[in-house]
Design a protein that fits this description.
GO biological process, one term: DNA transposition
Protein name: Transposase IS4-like domain-containing protein
GO molecular function, one term: transposase activity
Pfam family, one: DDE_Tnp_1
Organism: Eubacterium plexicaudatum ASF492
Mean pLDDT: 83
Distance between the termini: 31 Å
Low-confidence stretches: none
Structural class: alpha+beta
Length: about 210
């Protein structure tokens, strides 16, 4: 399953002497509940000045074209209790929360995202920098998926179909990016695969299927 895959990814990253930051998703309910409960009871209720002084809290504010976005980052590195509850996450060193508040045209929307990470002693500012980089990549990829595969128009909802199709689109984008012989955009390459079987086989060659 998706969570099992994430655990394996975390293990491989640690064995390569690297660090990970992994977003906690809704399908990881126990993990999500433990992190949410901790931050809501023991962190969000603390004075932000004290947290900021301890480098456990960081805030950035962006004002652009009438849109105001405030992101508040919190981290906790003293998590022995959490590691005991979730020993399957190799290298786990801390948990983080990002509270994003966006105000635009008089409407305010707040969202909270949680993550686990392996870097020891991570500060809230470092966590914020990593989160911003992550969402920059996510937004860029979402734009490509929407343009090339019309992802936002998809009506696939049944069971795990939406998640499976999302994974298939990601694989498709990666394969199309790897294919360098055709100087076209991703959307044009995808269309070319539909009418040029030789080119389709060339793109699928990135899967190491043996197709030539």
């Amino acid at each position: 399953d998706a969570m099992g895959t994430q655990k394996e990814i975390a293990r491989k990253i640690i064995h390569k002497n690297a660090d990970y930051i992994l977003q906690v998703k809704g399908n990881q309910q126990t993990l999500m509940d433990d992190i949410r409960e901790y931050f809501e009871k023991d962190v969000f209720t603390e004075k932000k000045d004290a947290l900021e002084k301890a480098e456990r809290y960081y805030k950035d504010l962006c004002k652009e074209h009438g849109r105001i976005e405030k992101r508040e980052y919190s981290v906790e590195n003293d998590i022995e209790w959490f590691r005991q509850r979730h020993p399957e996450w190799e290298g786990l060193a801390g948990i983080g929360a990002c509270v994003s508040t966006v105000t635009e045209k008089g409407n305010t929307v707040t969202a909270v995202n949680y993550a686990i990470y392996s870097r020891k002693g991570m500060t809230a500012a470092e966590y914020g920098k990593s989160e911003r980089a992550h969402w920059g990549i996510e937004n860029s990829l979402h734009w490509v998926l929407d343009i090339a595969f019309r992802e936002d128009e998809s009506r696939i909802r049944a069971g795990n179909a939406a998640e499976n199709m999302n994974m298939a689109r990601h694989i498709g984008v990666n394969l199309l990016k790897q294919e360098k012989s055709c100087k076209m955009g991703i959307a044009s390459k995808r269309k070319k695969c539909g009418y040029d079987m030789a080119y389709l086989y060339k793109v699928l060659g990135g899967l190491n299927t043996g197709i030539k």
